[in-house]
Automatic annotation (TrEMBL):
Positions of transmembrane segments: 179-198
Domain PARP-type: 7-89, 112-180
Pfam families (alphabetical): zf-PARP
Protein's UniProt name: PARP-type domain-containing protein
Domain of life: Eukaryota
Coiled-coil segments: none
Keyword Transmembrane belongs to the record: yes
GO molecular function (one): DNA binding
GO cellular component terms attached to this protein's record: nucleus
Location(s), subcellular: Nucleus
Length: 217
């Protein structure tokens, strides 16, 4: 079914849609490409619309079969999309991203690999892929699991981040930043304690040294 495909291509029906890439209006009858995401409000998908040129900079479409409405486009526009598919395939061979992290809306209920509690449908979750196996986390549980390694990152490079709503992007940034800040605070407190113990140890050694010299005299 076309509703299950990750992308959609069509000609804009009006001037009311705006591009998620450049934020400008997509003019009526202009080719627009939508990245389909899970709606946070109902059981279905909604498109995030882009100008074709804006989509080409970020859209990792691997085959024209992944794009609903492709067969209804003009020949010239079909050729542009075919060329994009070829370029993406070539780039993937040169630099295979392999395993990594993804943030997404949970398509169905699942279990958190951190706290073992349920991740409800449509909740935000982090997917960690490693050696062909995927583990799912609540945002907070992922931060606790990965520590500073999982938090000190450019969120724009996190797979799926650009497909979230602006509200959820802010939530992800806030959640991870808060936990990262806590880790930095604990680390700073730990090293301050070590510094205090070291200073106390040096003072004790100096006192003992002076005492030995005094009694020897």
């Amino acid at each position: 079914m076309s509703d299950d495909l990750p992308f959609r291509a069509e000609y804009a029906k009006s001037n009311r849609s705006s591009c998620k890439g450049c934020k400008s209006v997509i003019s009526k009858d202009t080719l627009r490409v939508g990245r389909m995401i899970q709606s946070p409000h109902f059981d279905g998908k909604i498109p995030l619309w882009y100008h074709f040129t804006c989509f080409a900079r970020t859209g990792k479409v691997k085959t024209t079969g992944d794009m609903a409405g492709f067969e209804n486009l003009r020949w010239g526009d079909q050729e542009k999309i075919r060329k994009l598919v070829e370029e993406n395939a070539a780039a993937e061979k040169e630099d295979d991203p392999g395993e990594g992290l993804t943030v997404q809306y949970c398509p169905k209920g699942g279990k958190c690999g951190g706290c073992s509690d349920k991740i409800h449908k449509n909740d935000l979750r982090i997917v960690q892929s490693e050696s062909g196996k995927s583990t799912f986390y609540h945002l907070g549980c992922f931060a606790n699991h990965r520590g500073s390694e999982g938090l000190n990152m450019d969120l724009k490079k996190l797979k799926g981040y650009n497909e979230l709503t602006e509200e959820d992007k802010a939530l992800v940034s806030e959640k991870l930043a808060q936990t990262y800040g806590l880790i930095l605070f604990v680390a700073e407190l730990f090293f301050s304690a070590l510094s205090f113990l070291y200073s106390s140890f040096r003072m004790t050694l100096q006192f003992l040294s002076c005492s030995v010299v005094y009694f020897n005299n």
